[in-house]
Amino acid sequence: MQRNYIQTREDKLPSTNPIKIQESTTSIETTAGQIIRRVFGILFYVHLILITILVIFLIIHGLLSNVHKHHFHPRKWFPPLLTSAASAGIVAFIWQWLTGYTHSTALKAAFWLSPLLTFAAGILLILIGSAGALAVGVIAVVSALILSLYACWVNPRFEYAQQILSVAMAFYPAKTVVLVILSILISTLYSCFLMSGIGGVTASRTSLDTFLISVILLSLAGTMHVIKNTLIVTISRVKFLQFACGADMDICAAFHDTIKYCMGSICIGSTLVPILGVIRGSARALKLIAGDRDKFLFSCADCYAGLASTLITYGNRWGFVYVGVYNKGFVQASTDAWRMFGMAGLETLIDSDLTGSFCFLFGVAGGAICSLISGTWALAIHENQATEVSIYAFLVGYFMCRVAMAWPQACVSAYYIAYAENPQNPQFDSTIPDRIQELQRYRV
Prior knowledge:
Elements: H1 2-11, H2 27-69, H3 74-101, H4 103-128, H5 131-153, H6 158-168, H7 174-204, H8 209-245, H9 251-261, H10 263-290, H11 295-313, H12 319-326, H13 330-344, H14 347-351, H15 355-381, H16 386-404, H17 406-421, H18 431-443
């Protein structure tokens, strides 16, 4: 019965036709959902146009202002920061190659190098000596220590994470690599463009500097999330069909469908997932701090954790798979994915999955590398701007590496969703069942 269900859904998704929109329970919900998705998609494209106009204006205005004020030195400010964007692209390519070539080495590198590199970046910021650099540097050093402890804590899960990466990323078409490479190149150019805008703001020095820089950085974060999640939706659709039905779909056709039909859902998900991720992480931290010593604090932490668990049902990264496969709205896709995991008994397994941490730590490592390169350069030639350059370089490196890591994240997500829909599918090996039995033994 389950196999027939999947085959029926596959019949609705030929590679040459657009993704079929799944029927909702009521026409009102369908219409409302489509309107919301279309609005978010339009807003994203309008945002790109407006930020492009703003950045071009800021670059021109900054250069003209600097002619008269002479307080800004473009030759000292732009090379380190633009080099950081180029370095981020190179690091992203290396991470991508390393992950595709040797999963075990990539996994260990992410968990053990990221604390060291983050610590080094923190020390550099402390050496810069400004108040802002000192504050951020201390945060980076503390974060590095936390990441080290986390790596030690999850060390027993490494073997399973390596197995999942190995089986999920097997048999990928060459066009997938090309798509990821093109996405990295586009991200590099976009980052350089926005950093030039920040340079224009720095050169002009107006009362709106903080606001304008914040707008540009928010645009960087939002657009990078959309690029990353567009890759996840595209690649996960192709991999899901491969895992669930043994069907091959052209990645170009999947990408075309994603751009044409799924951008609204992707934009919604790109907004919700980071916010809900922070809420869930803070809930776990609060519950860990509360323990069971203070009944009042424990009660508040328990309520907050329950709220976070409820919210994550309506917005999680697994929903991107159903967005790509069935063109569902993101909230509905997330709800269906979580319900499917519950039916298959995979909640504990996916909750302890290291793929998300793996991709996040690679981003931290890439950000730290870019921060070290640009920060050291800026410190040597223009110490007054070393703090800003280091922070901007870190953000660029982080987001660029997250785009590069969309590939393994999409493959693993598609693998879990396809398994949850049909655990008896002969195309799956014993990796997940063996892990479930191992977790059950630990609980006993």
